[in-house]
Structure formats: C-alpha cells, structure tokens
Amino acid sequence: MATERDVGSSLSDTTIVDTDVHIGYGGPVVEATAERMDEPWAGYVDPERTPDRYRYPSPGLPKPLGGRKEFLIEREKNGANTHPDFIREVLMDEIGVDYPICNFLSAVERAWKTERVIAEMRAQNEVLIEHFLEGNDDFYGLANITMRDPDAAVEEIERIGDHDQIVGVFIFTGTKHQKPPGDPQYDPVYRALADHDLTPTYHVTNFVSKAPFLQEYEKMFAWHPLAQSWSIQHTVVSLIAQGVPAKFPELDFVMLEGGVTWIPWAMARLNREHGQWRSEVPYLEKSPEEHLRDQFYFSTQPLEEFNDPKNMFKLLDIIGPESLVFSTDYPHYDFDDPGAIDRFFAEFTDEERDMVFGGNAIDAYGLDI
Known about the structure:
By secondary structure, the chain is an alpha/beta fold. It has helices at residues 27-35, 41-45, 52-55, 69-77, 84-94, 114-133, 150-160, 187-195, 207-210, 220-241, 244-247, 263-276, 288-295, 309-319, 338-341, 350-365, and strands spanning 17-23, 99-104, 140-144, 166-172, 199-203, 253-256, 296-299, 324-325.
C-alpha cells in the first residue's frame, strides 16, 4: 500500500512506482566505482587522478539548463543523489514516490575503449547493489550492461541477474559504437534476460553522436526534442523490424524519456509498412501495433503539453493507460512529479490511473509489492 504523502488528494492512496530515478554519478559514488575496478581502467574513473572534464568526451551541454533552477541548486547542495538517504528524503518523503527504480545514467557509453566500459559498468552495478539496494527493501535497480559486447552483457546478467532487487537492465540508446538494439547479434542477451526474468529498459542518451546531423542545429530548443524522441523511435523500430518481441514473447520492453506524442504515429505507420513489406518480416505474426500494445511500456516523462489539455487526454487515450509507466527523471532539472502530471489523467478511471502510476510498472518488472 502507498503511504499517504503530500502528492495531492487524488493520489494519496495510490502506490507510486518511479521507473526512472538517476543515481548521481559524482563524489563518493564515483570513488566507490573506481575502487571496484582494476587498473588501468580505475585510473580513468578515479576523481583524484582524472578531472571530470577528461573522464568522457564532452556532449557540450550548457549547465545549468534552466527549468526548476531552485531545485537544481538544492540538489547540488545536498549531494546530487549520491546517497540513498537523499532519494528517500526528497523523492519519497517530499514528492510521494513509494518505490524508486534506480539506475546509473553516467556518460560511460561515450568512452571509446570497450574494455573500460565493461569494467566500469560492472563496478557501477556493484555500487548500485551495495550502496543503494542492500538495506533499502523498497528500492529496486536496473543493472547497467553495454550492448557493444553481447558476450560481456550476458556474463553480467548471469553474474547479478538473480539479485532480488535487480529487476531489469539499463540500455543506452545513443551510443555510436553499437548496432541498433534489435540486431540478431543481441539475441543471446535477450535470451539471458528472459531466463532471469529481467526487463530490458532503454534510455535516451547522447543521440547527437548517433545522428551527427543533430549537431547542425545551433539551439538546444531544436535538437533536444528531436534527439529524445528519435532515440526511442530508433530503438522501437529496430526491435519490431527484427522481430525481437515475437522471438521473446515473455519479455516486456520499457522505453524511458522519449516522450509519448509520437507513439500513435509509430503504431499507425508501422502497421502500414507491415502491410506493404510483410515478406521482410515473416516472424511478425501480429501487427506492429499489437506488439507495441502487448509488450511495450513508455514512460510519462517528459510528458508533452498541448495548448488545450483536452488534446493530451485524447492522445493518452489512444495510447492507452495500460501502456504507460510513471517516471520522474529525478533529479534532473525537467523532472515531473506525480502531483503535477496527474491533471492529464483526471478523466481516466481510478483503476486506469493506478495502472499508470504504479500497476503497470509492477507488472512490467515483476515487482514483489
């Protein structure tokens, strides 16, 4: 049961699961990660030996980005989400989340050396378990894996995949060092995930490197919305086109931070292409729309806004509340708290709203709640 908190009277009795809680990759977390890595890779991460600006190639994003500046300042002052007590105090006690699903959104996939990426992600997973999950039974986690090396990904899934609080894996969509996620070379990864009842979860990151033409836009106002939605569209189309949902019907697929307004377009357009090019995808026994509705979940953050709120309800109704999972993207500047976005779901039934804010995530990740 949810604990009654100041999230608005309409959600006070709702179990809220946040599917996208970022652990701050700085200070003590980076130090703990470096301590778990062998040389020479530890030297790339150790903050005493490697200044932040040299740890990864810079994406060139301005900081701060605006948005809720006062919250950013408070976040930095309190340690940037580098300790579970910070997540509990701010995200859970103040904002009203009952169960955070935590992940490491570091820039490690931008590193050029695959061996280093594997070593750092392995160490991050150990920090996730030891520092954030153990002793916090209401926390869950997504293990980092890199798709650059499918064998290493499978090995990492086998190593920690049976931990009770590891409920899925966190896959970056924007790295230029790997093929699209539906490529058949990744089938062993999906097989391992299915065997361990883990949910593949895809998160937008640095799609500018994957699609260099985005660099031609001079304003973040232009490339940021394109990069986020294209990143997840790229992922969804690849998975559908290569028949991954059909090959692994026991898997669900969660898409984080790609927005939602493009989803009806994807359903309709892929259906049309399926009708025209069915010979290319004989393994799709159902329409693309059916696969998307049956096995895919999309996070609510960032939830786009029309001038007329009624249009958002119409769009969410087309997507279906059964396909949405709540997320905050906490602690980033543009996070969405549950009370703020609940207005978009006001015309849904209580049961449907409960699905969006908690029930769908419980099903998608098999949470023991």
